[in-house]
Amino acid sequence: MSGNFYNFAAIRGVQAGTEYYVIMVPLKMVPKIFEFDSQELPADLRAQRVLSNVRVPQIASYLSENFEEYTLSSLCASVDGDLEFTPASDGLQFRNVGELRLSMTARIILNDGQHRRAAIEEALKTRPKLENETISVVLFVDEGLERCQQMFADLNKNAVRPSGSLNVLYDRRNPLARLSTRVLEDIPFFQEFTELEKTSLSNRAKNLFTLSSLNQANKWLAGQDANRFGENTESTVIAYWRQVSEVIPDWQKLMRGATTAGDLRKETVHAHGVMLQAFGVLGARLIAAKPDGWAESLAPLAEIDWSKRNAQLWRPRVMGARGMDGSVKSVHLAANLLIGAVGLPLNDKEQANEDDYLASLAEEKVVA
């Protein structure tokens, strides 16, 4: 191979009868080596999607803020140009380990990882010490636009994102996720009846809530940064959920085995994520209003008729024609009812939501 070239240690493999290579590339070289298709080209002439203006800053921030413990998955690229693989040895053991030379004039297009590539470029501006760290890259020989587009489709079609619940369970860095897992560990009810992997539940599922729903409820309760109550946030949140779990009679029946999660999901509104989030909203309001007496104020929740048959109370506040309504609007409307039940007045925003809701009901009656 003549001219200038890049030189990488590499491993050679075979897929679909075609050789490919795995190399380690210093992060400082990633923006220089890997190209994007023009973002101005129509989709049928590109091998990649258009960059998201949201994802790139998110990934760049992740790298910059967690530069001592980040993880980046491999990039995948196609090479259109001269390349040459030289085995480290002619022996069977090392014939697929060696050196890969790439011409500097070769065009290398990313099939997967364009957001990571752009984020690496941004992160290096604020964390230049990352420049000599490496990312693995899987290189295929370019076979034209059609093949590159098919590779993009195959890579993304067969990739499965982890569920929202698993993301919460495994994320030790996020303070809100850590708080939610602590609730699981400390409160038997949630430990017993929370789904840790899925983000939705079937009618016959033995669990009552998903971890992603509990995490969303904790976001309402403790705030995005899980610090609404300062250094007492964790203990306060755990105490709150313990009290709620003990004051709802049906939840206690579930703990005793006197009913099933499926029956509660079918018959009651408090067995759904929208109400769990409403409990979170209630907690934030109640604890702020009564920091020393909030626990006793939850007692009236035991007297609420949670049955779905109670249409006057729940429809259409949290129930639509096709079932439960999990919208943010329904969370607020359900919380309004709970706030009133524990004896708190609605604030201006809550009252405005309630007024709009009541006005919409009045309009429906007029039309009917």
Describe this structure in words.
There is one protein chain. With 368 residues, this protein is of the alpha+beta class. The chain is 45% helix and 16% strand. The protein is built from 16 helices and 11 strands. Strands 4-5-1-2-7-3-6 form a 7-stranded mixed beta sheet. Strand 1 and strand 2 form a beta hairpin. Helix 5 packs across helix 8, helix 6 crosses helix 8 and helix 8 packs parallel to helix 12. The longest helix is centred in the C-terminal third of the chain and has 20 residues. It is elongated, with a radius of gyration of 28 Å.
Spell out the key features of this protein.
368 residues; alpha+beta; seven-stranded mixed β-sheet; two-stranded parallel sheet; 16% strand
Largest sheet: 7 strands, mixed
Strand order of the largest sheet: 4-5-1-2-7-3-6
As residue ranges, the low-confidence spans are: 40-46
Strand content: 15-25%
Radius of gyration: 28 Å
Helix content: 40-55%
The termini sit apart by 81 Å
Order of helices and strands: EEHHEEEEHEHHHHEEHHHHHHHEEHH
Number of helical stretches of at least 4 residues: 16
| Helix/sheet category | alpha+beta
* Chain-averaged pLDDT: 89
Summary of the model, kept short:
The protein has 368 residues and is an alpha+beta fold.
Topology:
Blueprint: E1 5-15, E2 18-26, H1 30-33, H2 55-65, E3 75-80, E4 83-87, E5 97-103, E6 107-112, H3 114-126, E7 134-141, H4 145-157, H5 164-170, H6 175-186, H7 188-193, E8 194-195, E9 209-210, H8 211-222, H9 233-247, H10 249-256, H11 261-267, H12 273-289, H13 294-297, H14 311-314, E10 319-320, E11 323-324, H15 328-341, H16 348-367
Parallel strand pairs: 3-7, 8-9
Antiparallel strand pairs: 1-2, 1-5, 2-7, 3-6, 4-5, 10-11
